[in-house]
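Sequence, structure tokens reproduced for reference:
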Amino acid sequence: MVSEVTFYEHSTIDTLLRVLKPHLPQAAPLCHRLQSGLNASDRHVLFAASFPTSSPPSLADRARVFTVLFSDRSRKSEAQVWIYNSLCQRVPFPLPEPFPPTTSSIQSAAEDGFAFQNPLSTSERAVLKRHLTSLLQFLHTHRIPSAPGWPFDSVVRLACTHHIISSALSEIVPFNRKTDWLKYIFSASPKLLPGATSDISIPSNLTLHSDIKIEDDIALILSTSLIPRQPSTLRALPHRTLYLTSPDSPSQLVAWCFLGPDYSLMTLYVVEPYRGRGLAKYVAGQLLREVGKSPVHYGHADVSRSNLASRRLCESLGGVVGWETSYIDIDLEKLSQHD
């Protein structure tokens, strides 16, 4: 019988952020999600960790393995759960062997020849599996009857799952669905952020906005994304839009980019006639400046390995591949199958 790891609900995020800070940038997605403006009181989101508020890990206790999680399971069709385990730092950032940058000689993702390593020892993997098994059981049994959509569906949607964690999860429970992405990390400190937009001049008939000017544009934006999102969520997220203005016609949306609930660059798009002019880099760079104003000076993006254009864009903004990340759907009712 594998001994369980106890998880504790936290009423505030202060202790969690203090513990996670030395684990940046690996913990950046979770840190941003903990602080998201989407965490309204009426959503009854869950902050939890493998330690109580009264006894957090200390900097001196580096051998102590811990797990922190955020959950908003009322978002039934969107990402719900972010997880960080301290063993993720065993994959250093930057990588000792850098992920190969895209060049004109790389014509497909298969040509980069890079395999992400799992440096955990057998004993470390066993500890991680104990933490994750207990975490899933905690999510399965924890009751939040006042949350919207209660009782929750048994399927949970995990976001930004580090490859160290997803590898261990695959040995615990079957996945309903899993997609893999490259995790690009950006240093968004105001002092370190490269002049992402200083070399780009946009035409005078294009104007930058921090809102969506026309309601019908929401449907257009949603139609260009492979990741399901609710219109209400999209409106609430920080974003930048570029509109074409003309005295003879209504404003036309030509480019946009959003910061996700975890401050990841997402839904970046430029309509066909306006591509190749640096507009994607311009709107993404504007949003990275917003990340630089947050307490966590690391931005990030999830990019398909096969999307060389997006990879080149991330590199032009100073992005570096740190690890492989996954979005995973798990049916908690299937936990017993792997006990």
Notes: The two ends are 9 Å apart (CA to CA). The chain has a mean pLDDT of 90. The chain is about 25% helix and 25% strand. The chain has two domains: 8-188+324-338, 206-293.
